[in-house]
């Protein structure tokens, strides 16, 4: 097929949360082309629709307080707070005042007021549709940063698109994205870490009996690496046919990734202390108060009541079961406004960067804040 040619001021690769929001923010300032590989209707920002089990926790209070933000936000803090400005606060104000997203807080988590993801998804899509940004479907297969061109392939053939600025925000590998654009990152000649699943269930070596599968046990879960405590997470564990799930396990899977990056041969294990949770202690309870599945498991395995349950890590679940991916482009190569130091025309946002967060609206929030901040530079 014959190759076509086209051009734009800003090429945004990836119609996820960051790409869709950024494209709408540049309306009227630059000629924007948004490239999305998914051919389905309503394909833009689709991750929002499954976030928070359909409720979409799109932001976290921690973003708003640089003086007290948790340690895991330290790697992202230079992108969030700079020059006396709180970009997170400005982003949240834009979402509420300009897009009409009405937030409702549960603890530190921000949900849409009506507890439905469509109440975040629809305003984002409507803002994009009001903009003059052009949406094209296809897959970026090669970026020539020196020549400022991107080769795109789709059902009709291929297109060579010229740009002034290019923004890579095509996510990582998670949920329904089993394959990252082949060869795209290597073609950029920029250091990156290979993607692995994250925020996902884990497989364990021990056999999970059928009567445990589908049951939940609340407590404190500890992750150990070579016998050393790495992290503790309180919450509810869901037993699966071959492993463990639940928000606390998802968050611990992030630490699993960090440990294995440093030492691939590390021996990992999980300890579930079900005798205490939410500040209460139940080790004085009688066995008759235990759920039947727990009593049966303790009896069949000969484990002592009130002693933590031990499981040995085997592997992470595959990408399609993960809420995010671990890895990506080294963020230290970028300035605070998400611009590559060695190339002022190249930018990256969201999960394609090796900036990793636990559950709680951090990934979506970081994508939104990043788009808001980068839009300032690109509008100049």
Task: Present the secondary structure layout.
Elements: E1 4-7, E2 10-13, H1 17-25, E3 32-36, E4 59-60, H2 77-80, E5 81-82, E6 85-86, H3 87-97, E7 103-106, E8 109-112, H4 118-130, E9 134-137, E10 139-144, E11 149-154, E12 157-162, E13 165-168, H5 184-188, E14 192-198, E15 202-204, E16 216-225, E17 228-239, E18 243-245, H6 247-262, E19 268-273, E20 276-277, E21 280-281, H7 292-301, E22 309-316, E23 324-329, E24 346-348, H8 362-378
Parallel strand pairs: 1-12, 2-3, 2-13, 3-9, 13-24
Antiparallel strand pairs: 4-8, 5-6, 7-8, 10-11, 11-12, 14-23, 15-18, 15-22, 16-17, 16-19, 17-18, 19-22, 20-21
Overview of the molecule:
The structure is a single chain. With 380 residues, this protein is an alpha+beta fold. It has helices spanning 17-25, 77-80, 87-97, 118-130, 184-188, 247-262, 292-301, 362-378; strands at 4-7, 10-13, 32-36, 59-60, 81-82, 85-86, 103-106, 109-112, 134-137, 139-144, 149-154, 157-162, 165-168, 192-198, 202-204, 216-225, 228-239, 243-245, 268-273, 276-277, 280-281, 309-316, 324-329, 346-348. The longest helix is centred in the C-terminal third of the chain and has 17 residues, at 362-378. The two termini are 38 Å apart. The relative contact order is 0.19. The model has no long low-confidence stretch (mean pLDDT 90).
């Amino acid at each position: 097929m014959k190759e076509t040619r086209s051009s734009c001021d800003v090429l945004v690769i990836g119609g996820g949360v960051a790409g869709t929001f950024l494209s709408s923010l540049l309306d009227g300032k630059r000629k924007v082309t948004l490239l999305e590989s998914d051919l389905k209707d309503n394909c833009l920002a689709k991750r929002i629709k499954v976030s928070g089990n359909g409720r979409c926790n799109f932001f976290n209070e921690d973003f708003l307080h640089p003086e007290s933000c948790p340690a895991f936000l330290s790697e992202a803090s230079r992108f969030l707070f700079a020059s006396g400005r709180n970009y997170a606060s400005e982003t949240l104000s834009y979402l509420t005042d300009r897009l009409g997203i009405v937030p409702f807080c549960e603890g530190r988590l921000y949900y849409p007021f009506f507890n439905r993801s469509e109440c975040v998804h629809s305003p984002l899509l409507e803002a994009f549709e009001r903009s003059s940004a052009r949406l094209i479907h296809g897959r970026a297969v090669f970026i020539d940063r020196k020549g400022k061109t991107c080769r795109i392939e789709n059902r009709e053939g291929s297109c060579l698109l010229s740009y002034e600025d290019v923004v890579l925000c095509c996510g990582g590998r998670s949920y329904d994205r089993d394959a990252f654009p082949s060869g795209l990152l290597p073609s950029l000649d920029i250091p990156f870490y290979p993607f692995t699943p994250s925020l996902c269930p884990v497989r364990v070596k021990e056999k999970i009996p059928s009567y445990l599968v589908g049951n939940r046990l609340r407590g404190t879960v500890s992750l150990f690496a070579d016998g050393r405590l790495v992290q503790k997470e309180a919450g509810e564990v869901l037993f699966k046919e071959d492993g463990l799930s639940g928000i606390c396990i998802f968050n611990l899977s992030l630490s699993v990734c960090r440990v294995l990056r440093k030492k691939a041969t590390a021996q990992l294990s999980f300890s579930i202390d079900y005798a205490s949770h939410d500040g209460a202690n139940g080790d004085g309870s009688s066995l008759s108060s235990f759920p039947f599945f727990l009593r049966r498991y303790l009896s069949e395995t000969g484990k002592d009541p009130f002693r933590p349950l031990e499981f040995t890590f085997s592997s992470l679940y595959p990408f399609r079961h993960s809420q995010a991916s671990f890895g990506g482009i080294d963020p230290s190569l970028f300035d605070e406004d998400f611009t590559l130091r060695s190339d002022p025309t190249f930018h990256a946002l969201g999960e394609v960067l090796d900036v990793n967060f636990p559950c709680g609206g951090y990934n979506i929030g970081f994508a939104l804040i990043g788009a808001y901040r980068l839009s300032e530079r690109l509008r100049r």
